[in-house]
Amino acid sequence: MRPRSDRYHSIVRALSLFASALTIIIATAHVEPAFGSVDSVTNIFRPLSQPAQEIKETSFLVLAICAVIFVVVAGLLVYAIVRFRHRPGDEASEPPQVYGSNQIETAWTVLPILIVFVLILVTSRTIADIQNRKPTTASVKSTVVGHQWWWEIRYPELGIVTANELHVPTSTEGNHQPTFLKLQSADVAHSFWVPQLAGKTDLIPNRENLMWIAPTEPGTYLGNCAEYCGMQHARMLLRVVVHTPQEFEQWVKEQQQPAVEEASASEGRKLFFANSCVSCHAIRGTSAKGVFGPDLTHLMSRQTLASGAALNSHDSLRAWIRDPQQVKVGCLMPNMQMSDKEVDQIVAYLETLR
User: Fold this and answer.
1) What gap in Å lies between CA 269 and CA 58, rounded to an integer?
2) CA-CA distance, 104 to 98, in Å (whole number)?
3) Which of 64, 134, 308, 319 has the maximum number of C-beta atoms within 10 A of its C-beta?
4) CA distance 227 to 220
5) CA 251, CA 245: separation in Å to the nearest integer?
6) Are the C-beta atoms of 195 and 223 separated by less than 8 Å?
């Protein structure tokens, strides 16, 4: 048997580790102000949408109840260690033997049942309140389709198709304009999760799930696929860009326009349509009608490429066209084996799609 001093030291170390872990958890509530970049870890303790706010309030109740339980159990444990520790002379006597207490056994049976019952009621009410919300005439409606490994985003009523960036308006008390999402999958199971805006909702093949968000502050919010979906699951990122109502209307008008055709990029345009690019990609107003890859009509209006794998810059776009596997290993876009001149011409054409 280990010496008593070692046991005491183990208990102290365990309590110290728990205190450190609790400090880290509390500190995460203040990550966003220090690391406000959209490329940093998002903060679930600073919700900026109504569904996320309701989830936060419920989670705080659960955390408070669990904290009380921990304090009671840990307190009794420490009391027992200190009060009934070994003392000189204990070897000659036997402590009192207690064989049970009906009152104590009733208490530790009834109290957990009541706690679980309360948590079930509160959680069920929150889930029902979020899931049963219905769209209004002012609501924005969008369909999000998960692919390996990117997001297709459609606005059926607005005639817009884009990729990897969901654009929505803010929703305030004076102008309540929530966004309702239909979630679908084109291949395997995915999961839509933007921590500051809403909870996770799965995208299941041959099934349509629904969710809604109502962001209250303009900005760009980072999300990701939260269900392992293959090799590039970790790089299936998503950005939700929240506009003011006026900015959203302007974005809609710009996205509804057909692709611009500039004479300076005519060689690249011919090369694009002469290759198999048109088999996978669509460009509105042209003969490119592909459905297997992202719509490229306004490619350069997006912040990233390859679902967040790279920033949407000239160098990144060139590297992506040159060899997609170097940017996102295992992606379904093949290396077209083009020469440097052909790559430059394709890039010059794509950069006109704003």
Assistant:
1) 54
2) 12
3) 308
4) 22
5) 10
6) yes
Q: Pick left, alpha or beta for residue 214 (phi over 0 → left; psi -120 to 50 → alpha; otherwise beta).
A: beta
212 contact partners, CB below 8 Å, separation of at least 6: 51, 130, 133, 135, 139, 178, 179, 180, 181, 198
Other Cβ atoms within 10 Å of 305 Cβ, number: 24
pLDDT, one tens digit per residue, over 49-94 is 888 888 888 989 999 999 999 999 999 999 989 888 888 877 777 7
Exposed, middle or buried, 214 (CB in 10 Å: 0-12/13-18/19+)?
buried
Residue count (the chain): 354
Phi-psi region of 164 (alpha: psi -120 to 50; beta: other; left: phi over 0): left
pTM of the model: 0.77
Give tens-digit pLDDT for 5-57. 555 555 556 555 555 555 554 444 443 333 334 545 567 778 888 888 888 88
Round to whole Å and give the CA distance between 295 and 288.
Answer: 9
Domains of the chain: 34-87+102-252 (2.60.40.420), 263-350 (2.60.40.420)
AA identity, residue 79: Y
